[in-house]
Specification:
Chain lengths: 746, 341
């Protein structure tokens, strides 16, 4: 089956752009179903202890208040922990909202007030009388290092770091050395759209649930198990998500609360969280890290040691791959890695864009800069000398790796060769200038995904899969792939997602959606092509009688013979002749699932190299990131336009991590104190200057048929380190505790 | 947020009477601060009195050569008023350094004076705060006090007044016009905001029920040599860690008259008249500026997370005075900051 339209690899405007601009794209809290009730969550003011008394009489007496749900009156649902586990739950015992009197963390939901209007529910929540008995809490990671333990298997995707060789020996072999501690604080995802669920009660336990999530099936199985609902009873819809960054990978507690209230009251209910409550669940965990590196006289690494301690909650062991990348990115025989967790009285951390790698690459890539200086080498030259041509951690060849091109093209674009090594040696007028670099590596994954392709009697192709659009451009690239596969103009194709009545797809995360769903779109379209060919054959079209799928092509809304393009049937006619309203086909995931069970033959990764310029006022020490070049090797780029946006966003986030972003906790209260957009600082437009994104060419026929590696995350790696390294280059000050706020530079 | 009633006042006397007639009434200007405080349950007025129809949104020349800013003129209209741009550029710069264009379009000049602190604990009902709940304690002391003050603090409260505009108004010797149950009066700007002392719940010296009707700027606007320098955690849309409003009158290189006020460091815009006196008659040199900066921060006290502000304030004073002297903003901190007014 060959095709004649050409959309893959072409910059393409977002097909959902008009809906977003016109406001017709609806988000979870915008579905105004009839007779809706509103729930408002009351959050715990203490970090640990017990609820000793709840007096809801005054609240219930307010006209319009329907119910006050607390642990005292919420019936027990499913009994086993297993029922509360979602697809990405870490090991441990998942948190159950309104389960008992115990307070496990600050801002824990302790009550849900349901009323006729949002305003009334909010007011009622503010006067609900709850008494607590406080217990001593522990929220300070630095004070809990001694209790740190090695996690067991952890959650899906966690690879316990593997050491190799003998670091002690490697360290002794080295002629130059560096050793330092690094840290960064917790970060909260804070997507623009706050978590919300609107549950439409359709009668008799039948629900339509509009949820903010990165995976409708994850939400569905979660509520089905807890509340004993069938798939038909628990339909979950999420067509648009106002930012995810990982926060929507796990069902959040408003989903539980809204469904619970709806089932109890037999009414439609909406629960939306406040911005403050966006600090009441998962976050990027704080980590404390240690890196030691040694090099031989030629600058080759003789030893790498990377150790990290991260926070987790008392009830789950949240694990991520923080240090493992340090055993892959550079060539070295002696690598010692360690990763531990320490339990704190906080909610379980949660994957946040490039989970683990973002944290680990801060330490590794600053350490690489420090090592380059200690070894007297240019930081880029140092990395090139330690280039890994073979994945020593997995003992596998790379399916492809164009990081060398990232170094070369990125450096050329940036003008890196003009850099003078000495800190403080570059100026622009009186401003100090610093140039720094970094980079990273991220998994190229693919999960089984089901896609249905359906051609109707008007010749319009609808392709559907229960994946999600979190702003990355899923609607657009799937439409491109489908249009090209069927030789149709892009306007003749619609991609539908975000509904549990659609074919099953994995969570939207891990940068795997483009590869997983994208390749399945091709498979489904191929199957549809076969079905169309069969129909043509049924119609006794002599030209197609013995044709195989490889003998035909789809073009101009026609099926035609490759050997003789004049032999053609109009697709529309095929559907009409079939006597059905449409011809459909679905791909099979059997092979993909088998593939997942086999040991990999290749190490499959995306890479990047990032170059940063900062300018600093030498007296006031205000930092401006004036220029960034991010060169990315991520296989085939389906849509350079949406892909570029992903990398731009990553760079902005990296700058944010480097200079401003942190959830600040007051450990006396065990509570994040900057829980709003005014005080949780992320860059504004004025902080962002030139950003250049380069996609280096990288062909890969091993990673998956389309050669896609995914790019939602890789662009973030090394950015924060590169900014920090640039600050060192400008000032000679090495800051190892991020973010680098002005007080750390004075 | 609790439920409340609302009346749109059409005359100052009526507004004042309406206020006196209710126990928990509040005036509302642009609402950019009050509504947030109500949503967080920090303020719980049961009656709101709208001021936008009072006709106090004009900006007019005064017979003595000064300029009167109506209390209900928006921050944006004030900053971009031709007379303000031309004759009081320090005020223009200070206003534009604050908040965001959207907020400045809503916020009123009277409301700007009355905005409450941005201390994290003041906004979070789960934590003790003397300003919100007298006698409950000050969480910022011994806590996360990055945004808190270093000058004129008390053991009860170390909060700052967060305004940028007010720092310029303090430097310019503005007079605040108010109307209340006992008639009209004027308050000198330096007497308007107060230090926390042992009454941190009181931000200013307004008497109960009093309404700000206008701000009178004197004729002298220092349009030749001035600088508003704001240092913050990001380039826009963040409150000042430290800000400096300074205005100079120079004769050659000698300072004939000087104004110096700081924001982000105290419970009120921190005008230092002794420092101004030290400047007058001196050459406008880095040396002079450094001596003055040291004097301003002589009695400063850091509380841990905000101790860096002492050094930062000294450097900011030196820089602001230099910029006011040279009026060529060579070093680009300001250029970066003002790139999106
Ligand atoms: C996210 C954010 C960022 C901000 N950043 C900055 C910044 O960087 N710099 C800065 O300076 N400001 C900043 N602001 C604050 C902003 O300047 C103030 O909120 C605004 O000036 C208040 O004016 P308003 O008219 O909206 O006041 P309102 O919210 O209407 O009222 C505030 C208070 O003043 C009282 N009041 C109002 N008018 C009168 C009057 N005429 N007489 C007596 N009492 C009155 C009200 O009762 C209330 O108590 C920011 C605000 C927000 C929300
Ligand atoms: S500094 Fe003032 S406002 Fe802040 S917690 Fe203390 S008393 Fe409250």
């Amino acid at each position: 089956m060959s095709h004649t339209t050409d959309y893959i690899g072409k910059p393409t405007n977002r097909v959902d752009g008009p809906a977003k601009v016109l406001g017709t794209a609806k988000y979870a809290a915008e579905f105004n179903v009839p007779n809706l009730l509103y729930g408002y969550v009351v959050s715990s003011p203490i970090a640990k202890g017990k609820i000793t008394k709840i007096d809801s009489a005054a609240v219930k007496a307010l006209p319009g208040v329907q119910e006050v749900f607390t642990h005292e009156n919420v019936p027990g649902f499913a009994f086993l922990d297993r029922s509360y586990k979602d697809d990405v739950a870490p090991g441990g015992s998942p948190f159950r909202p309104l389960h008992d009197a115990e307070i496990k963390y600050s801002l824990q939901p302790v009550a849900l007030v349901v009323a006729d209007t949002f305003e009334l529910a909010r007011y009622a929540a503010s006067i609900l009388h709850i008494e607590y008995e406080e217990e001593a809490h522990a929220t300070e990671l630095a004070k809990r290092i001694d209790e740190a333990f090695e996690p067991g298997r952890g959650k899906t995707g966690y690879k316990p770091p593997k050491s190799r060789g003998n670091f002690g020996k490697g360290w002794k072999q080295g002629v130059a050395h560096m050793e330092a501690n690094y840290s960064h604080h917790a970060q909260h995802h804070n997507p623009m759209e706050m978590f919300a669920t609107t549950v439409e009660w359709l009668g008799d336990k039948k629900l339509t649930v509009y949820d903010k999530t990165q995976g409708v099936f994850n939400s569905q199985q979660y509520i089905s198990k807890i509340f004993g609902l069938s798939k038909e009873e628990a339909r979950v819809i999420s067509k648009y998500t106002g930012g995810g960054f990982g926060s929507g990978l796990r069902p959040q507690y408003q989903l539980f609360l809204a469904v619970m209230a709806s089932l109890q009251l037999e009414r439609s209910v909406r629960v939306s969280l406040t911005r403050e409550q966006m600090f009441s669940f998962g976050h990027r965990p704080e980590t404390l890290q240690h890196v030691a590196l040694a090099t031989a006289a030629d600058g080759s690494l003789t030893g790498i040691n990377h150790f990290a301690v991260a926070e987790t909650s008392q009830f789950e062991d949240f694990t991520e791959n923080v240090v493992g990348w340090s055993g892959t990115l550079y060539d070295c025989k002696n690598v010692e890695l360690g990763y531990r967790l320490s339990k704190l009285d906080v909610f379980s951390p949660l994957d946040m864009r490039a989970p683990g790698a973002a944290s680990g690459s801060i330490a590794l890539e600053i350490a690489m800069d420090e090592m380059a200086y200690a070894a007297g080498l240019d930081p880029l030259e140092f990395r090139i000398r330690n280039y890994s041509d073979f994945d020593q951690a997995q003992n596998l060849p790379y399916s492809s790796k164009a990081l060398r091109k990232c170094y070369a093209e990125g450096a050329a674009k940036f003008g890196w060769e003009k850099r003078t090594a000495e800190p403080g040696s570059m100026r622009d007028g009186k401003m100090l200038v610093g140039w720094g670099m970094g980079g990273g590596i991220w998994d190229a994954s693919k999960m089984p995904a089901t896609v249905k392709a359906s051609l109707d009697a008007d010749g319009h192709l609808t392709v559907s899969s229960g994946t999600n659009e979190i702003g990355t451009g899923t609607y657009t690239i799937m439409t491109q792939i489908a249009a090209e596969s069927m030789g149709l103009p892009i306007e003749a194709v619609t991609f539908v997602l975000g509904d549990t009545t659609l074919p099953e797809s994995p969570l939207q995360g891990g940068s795997w959606t483009a590869a997983s769903v994208g390749n399945s779109v091709v498979e489904a379209c191929t199957k549809l092509g076969e079905a169309l060919l069969k129909q043509a054959q049924k119609m006794d079209h002599p030209a197609f009688k013995d044709a195989k799928i490889d003998d035909v092509q789809f073009a101009n809304g026609q099926l035609r013979l490759r050997s003789d393009e004049t032999q053609a049937v109009v697709l529309r006619d095929l559907v009409q002749a079939s006597g059905e309203s449409k011809i459909e086909a679905e791909n099979s995931t059997v092979l993909a699932k088998l593939e997942m069970l086999k040991p990999p033959k290749y190490s499959m990764h995306a890479h990047n190299a990032v170059f940063v310029e900062v300018k600093l006022d030498p007296d006031l020490m205000t930092v401006h990131v004036t220029r960034v070049v991010n060169a990315v090797a991520a296989g085939r780029i389906i849509n350079p336009k949406t892909a570029r946006s992903q990398v731009l966003g990553s760079v902005v986030w990296g700058i944010s991590s480097a200079l401003m972003e942190e959830s600040v906790m007051d450990h006396r209260f065990g509570r994040y104190m900057n829980h709003n957009y005014a005080e949780y600082h992320v860059p504004v437009n004025a902080d962002i200057h030139d950003i250049d994104v380069i996609f280096v060419s990288e062909e890969d026929d091993k990673v998956n048929p389309l050669g896609i590696k995914g790019l939602g995350e890789v662009g973030l790696l090394g950015v924060a380190a590169a900014v920090t390294n640039a600050i060192y280059h400008a000032t000679g000050k090495r800051v190892r505790d991020l973010p680098v706020t002005i007080d750390k530079l004075l | 947020m609790n439920s409340f009633t609302f009346t749109q006042a059409t005359a100052v006397a009526g507004a004042v009477q309406d206020k006196a007639a209710h126990d928990d009434a509040a005036y509302i200007g642009g609402g950019t601060n009050l509504i947030d405080l109500m949503k967080e349950n920090v303020a719980r007025p049961t009656h709101l009195i709208g001021l936008k129809k009072l006709g106090l949104d004009t900006i007019e020349a005064l017979p003595d050569g000064g300029l009167r800013l109506g209390a209900l003129a928006t921050n944006a209209d004030t900053a971009w008023h031709p007379e303000v741009e031309k004759r009081y550029p320090l005020l223009n710069q200070a206003i534009l350094a604050g908040a965001s264009p959207q907020l400045r379009n809503m916020a009123t000049d009277g409301g700007n004076l009355m905005q409450r602190t941005r201390c994290y604990y003041f906004y979070d009902l789960a934590t003790p705060c003397n300003k919100r709940e007298p006698g409950s304690g000050c969480s910022a002391i011994g806590g996360y006090n990055r945004v808190c003050g270093i000058l004129g603090t008390s053991e009860q409260c170390i909060a700052t007044h967060p305004s940028d505009m007010c720092v310029a108004l303090a430097a310019l010797d503005t007079t605040v016009r108010v109307s209340g149950p006992n008639g009209e009066r004027t308050i000198k700007f330096e007497d308007f905001h107060r230090l926390p002392g042992d009454q941190p719940e009181r931000d200013n010296t307004l008497e109960p029920g009093e309404l700000i009707t206008g701000l009178d700027l004197p004729a002298k606007g220092f349009e030749k040599n001035f600088s508003y320098l704001k240092l913050r955690d990001r380039t826009s849309y963040a409150f000042a860690l430290v800000s400096v409003a300074t205005a100079l009158e120079l004769y050659g290189n000698t300072i004939k008259d000087a104004r110096l006020a700081l924001g982000g460091v105290a419970h009120k815009p921190w005008r230092d008249k002794e420092a101004e006196a030290m400047l007058i008659g001196q050459p406008a040199t880095a040396d002079t500026f450094r001596r003055v900066a040291a004097k301003v921060l002589e009695n400063a006290k850091g509380y841990g997370a905000n101790t860096f502000k002492i050094e930062l304030a000294k450097r900011a004073i030196v820089r602001a005075l230099k910029q006011a002297t040279e009026m060529n903003q060579v070093l680009d901190t300001n250029a970066f900051q003002n790139s999106n007014p």
